Amino acid sequence: MKIGIIGGGASGIFAAIEARKKYSDVTIFDKNDFLGRKLSSTGAGRCNLTNVNVSPGIYQSINKFSFQDLIKNYDYIFLNEYFRQLGIHTYHTDDGWVYPLSNSARNISTLLEDHLTTVNVKINKNTSVSSFIKIKNRFQLKTDSGKSYEFDKLILASGGKAYPQLRASDAILQSLLNFGHKLIPAFPALAPIKTSKHETKSLNGVRLDATIRILDNKSVIGSEFGNIIFTEWGLNGPGVMNLSHLVHEKNNLKIVLDFSSVLPPEFLSIVIANKDKFLYLSTALLSIFNKKIIEQLLLNLNFGLYSPFRINDFINLTNKMMFTENILGTRDFEFAQISTGAIESSQINPETLESKLCTGLYFAGEVLDMIGPCGGFNLHWAFISGIIAGQLKN
Question: Are 360 and 154 in contact (CB under 8 A)?
Fold first, then answer.
């Protein structure tokens, strides 16, 4: 039995590890000159492997969400033990982000490639698979160089369009149309959002936590509390990126940044009790916000920077502590952590990740319709979907 794996990223590597436990002839193909190229850049180079808080409710899909049970059964505890058995030792931050003790993503890529070598997985680097078909129960692969390979079972773990600078591409998904599979269009996800700058023009470089809402007309279609970074073209930061997949193919969306939720619950009552101690409206906010935020807020509400403190004005100010901008789109794939281009989930067995339309064809990683927030959730899915696909259950 010969097993082929297209893609040598996180999901492809773990599919190969798992498949090799069962089959002696496993071959992996990757476009880059070492496996785990994208993995080696994650977590700002530290390798944000997973998250302690993994649960089905964290994830979303463009279409129907089909993989709740897999997330529930293959949780952080399962994956961390799997890592330990591979010799990957981890720690996590207070908010649950998990990293290797080395804080080196490149080290992890090297360790995993070395492991595949020791268990005799065949590794074809700098090799791009251009297409595949199935003839007489065998998958026939063709590479860009013209070489052909045959396999009894095939795992597609080729990733999406995010990070084209790392040779990312979803072109191979076109081969699935020959099997009757439907594809979800590819757009940048976990990407910065481009906006107007009407109410935030002086805030470039400022970052803070706030509640972020995406509005379609007056309806909230997404909400998140998280970190925001103001830029010359719009907004960046995990809180913004987690909502970016909602932006595509819609017009006239707005983004609202509401930072009233940052105020301590007792804040207003304390200010009222000490109202005679504040010289300006801005004075009472200096211990809470960056000065640029205060200045922009006062400007937007037609208060001067040195407006004298009056309690009614201050209450009015705290009731309007938000910025609203028009959404112009997202930044392109080279700035996105993942992409939305994927295979329609209804055509995939949600327990085994095998195609319902083609026996012996399995999927893992970003080619599946699954979007997690920043913080290791998408790598978690890449690893466990690789493990599940690599089990090659019928």
Answer: yes
Beta bridge partners of 371: 60
Strands 97-100 and 50-51: antiparallel
Half-sphere exposure (Cβ direction) of 25: Cα atoms closer than 13 Å: 9
| Res 72: pLDDT | 96
DSSP, res 79: H
C-alpha span between 344 and 82 (Å, rounded): 29
DSSP letter (8 states) at residue 186: P
**Nearby residues of 199 by Cβ (< 8 Å), 6 or more positions away:** 296, 300, 323, 324, 325
> What residue spans define the domains of the chain?
2-187+340-390, 193-330
Residue 339 is inside which H or E element, if any?
Answer: strand 338-339
Is the distance from CB of 350 to CB of 17 less than 8 angstroms? no
Per-residue confidence at 9, pLDDT binned at 50, 70, 90?
very high
pLDDT of the residue at 192: 97
Residue 191's φ and ψ, nearest 5 degrees, are: -120, 155
What is the mean predicted confidence (pLDDT) over 249-253? 88
Can you state the percent helix, strand and coil of the chain, rounding each to 5? 30, 25, 40
Strand partners, 140: 133, 150
Outline where 219-275 has alpha helix (H): 238-241, 267-273
Please name the residue that has the structure tokens 């913080």.
375
Distance from C-alpha of 50 to C-alpha of 4, rounded to nearest angstrom:
26
Q: Is 129 helix (H, G, I), strand (E, B) or coil?
A: strand
Work out the pLDDT band at 43, boundaries 50, 70, 90.
confident
Structural tokens at position 6: 């297209």
What Å distances lie between residue 168 and 146, 330, 366, CA to CA?
Answer: 20, 18, 11
For 135, residues 6+ apart whose C-beta sits below 8 A from its C-beta are none
Please list the alpha-helical segments (H only) found in the chain.
Answer: 10-20, 68-73, 76-85, 105-118, 238-241, 267-273, 291-300, 311-318, 377-390
Task: Output DSSP code: residue 185.
Answer: P
> Per the CATH hierarchy, to which homologous superfamily does domain 2-187+340-390 belong?
FAD/NAD(P)-binding domain (3.50.50.60)
Sign of the CA dihedral running 148, 149, 154, 156: negative
> Using an 8 Å Cβ cutoff, are 45 and 106 in contact?
yes
Q: Residue 99's beta-bridge partner residues? A: 91
